[in-house]
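Support request, please re-run this one:
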Amino acid sequence: MSKPIKAGKVVIILAGRYAGKKAIVVKTFDDGNAQRGFGHCLVAGIDQNPRAVTKSMSKKKILKRSRVKPFIKFVNYNHIMPTRYTVNDIDVKSVVNPAIMKKLDTRIEARKAVKTMFEERYINRGKNSSGVQYFFKRLRF
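Re-run finished. Output below.
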């Protein structure tokens, strides 16, 4: 069996608080571990997407509308759906790892770092890959 879910893959969360939200897989645990005996992965995603921006808007308005609310979470493989898109140019691995998720204060700091990373990438979107465009676009259903 091939491994469809790899780091950098854009997935859609299917269950729980973030159902219907998009996320990027940071690390996979195919066989589980001591805390979670099932296959799961660590994801970083967008809870509230940035709003639409046009050329005629002021810089201040563009910055305000480009705000992102991220989340970081361990998710069971049964509760995510992989998409065909991958995101390689947002380096979430440098900020988020399983050790950071153990304590609340480090988790909050990691979420803030992911927020700045996502907002920076959204604002400086000169040459976007299709995966990045898809990731920042709101899922309509």
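The longest helix spans residues 104-123. DSSP finds three helices and five strands in the chain.
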